[in-house]
Design a protein that fits this description.
With 315 residues, the protein is mainly alpha-helical. It is elongated and about 80 Å long. Mean pLDDT is 80; it is low at 32-46. It contains twelve helices and no strands. The chain has helices spanning 3-31, 57-63, 68-79, 85-104, 113-156, 161-171, 176-188, 193-203, 207-222, 226-275, 282-285, 289-311. Among the domains are: 138-242, Receptor-associated Protein, CATH 1.20.81; 248-311.
Length: 315
């Protein structure tokens, strides 16, 4: 039980530091109300914004020497979260420490399992960021065909590509609106279409976006009817999304089977523990018991990911 006081102290210090940052930010905002500014922070073009790794200078200096920070920062931008890398890494340390401390209080588990628990707990914020990233990409993929149709109609009405994109940035829903607005802002700040559209494709690594960028750049070099290309591309994307939905519906049975097979051993062990007290006590008192329990947990996790990998059909 010696680890619980240390955990409580760690959580207390973390909460006090977070509260101090929130209070300082609040008073800074209150103090800055009387200072005239030219435009709100949300109206500043994206190219002029400076992204810091953390509000804590010491933590930012430490993170700047890590190679994985650049990838994590890119994932945060792609997920649409307004978090900093420092906030995510601090949350990962907190959740990992809590998980390792709670597992260390279970004497029937091997001592080395605390490292596994720390890694599992620390991965929760990262997995949340990746889940938000996938959800945002799915939204962009669903909205992109309508956006292509809007661009084609605007071009047919006589607008230039910049004007069509600016109209789209005003009418399209989020999160596509933010990305199109960034494209328009970059072009207004003097960047060429080649750099602007290439950056657009890098920020949204979807096949549909890359096809759109390739079509626009090719048309700017060789000429042709861009409206017809965009309409055909929008129709193809809709067919692809429909086919992918059918495949996911067929694979849903396999995903449900994998989930049941993962939960079933745990449920059976819980039922046996409460219905027949003492039947599983040998796993708690025998020297090999903790090793068998840890091996079973690892096998369940590996089996779940193997089944998930099998039923993940890519088109």
């Amino acid at each position: 039980m010696t680890a619980l006081p240390a955990l409580l102290v760690f959580i207390g210090v973390f909460l006090v530091a977070s509260l101090a940052v929130v209070i300082a930010s609040y008073w800074q905002d209150r103090g800055g109300e009387s200072v005239p500014v030219e435009a709100p922070a949300t109206d500043v073009p994206v190219l002029l914004r400076e992204e810091s790794l953390s509000t804590i200078s010491l933590w930012e200096d430490l993170l700047s020497h890590l190679d994985v920070v650049e990838s994590l920062q890119r994932y945060l931008v792609e997920s649409g979260l307004k978090w900093s890398v420092g906030r995510v890494t601090a949350t990962m340390m907190l959740t990992g420490t809590i998980s390792a401390t709670l597992v260390s209080e279970l004497p029937w588990l091997p001592s080395g399992i605390s490292l596994v628990a720390f890694a599992a707990g620390a991965s929760v914020p990262y997995l949340f960021v990746m889940a938000r990233r996938r959800h945002r990409f799915n939204q962009l993929e669903q909205q992109f065909p309508d956006a292509l149709d809007s661009i084609a109609r605007a071009l047919r009405a006589g607008h230039a590509l910049a004007g069509a994109l600016e109209l789209l940035s005003l009418e399209s829903p989020q999160p596509l609106r933010a990305e199109i607005k960034r494209v328009v802002d970059e072009y207004k700040l003097g960047s060429s279409w080649n750099l602007v559209l290439t950056g657009f494709a890098e920020r949204i690594p979807l096949l549909e976006v890359r096809l759109f960028v390739a079509a626009v750049l090719l048309q700017s070099r060789t000429g042709g009817k861009l409206t017809e290309v965009l309409e055909k591309l929008a129709e193809t994307i809709r067919d692809s999304i429909s086919l992918r939905g059918d495949v996911q519906a067929i694979a849903a049975h396999g995903r449900l089977t994998g989930l049941i097979l993962t939960i079933l051993p745990i449920a059976i062990a819980g039922i046996m523990y409460f219905s027949s007290p003492g039947y599983l006590d040998i796993l708690l008192v025998h020297p090999l018991g903790p090793l068998l329990i840890a091996s079973s947990i690892v096998c369940l996790v590996l089996g779940h990911f193997v089944i998930k990998r099998i039923v993940a059909i890519k088109i």
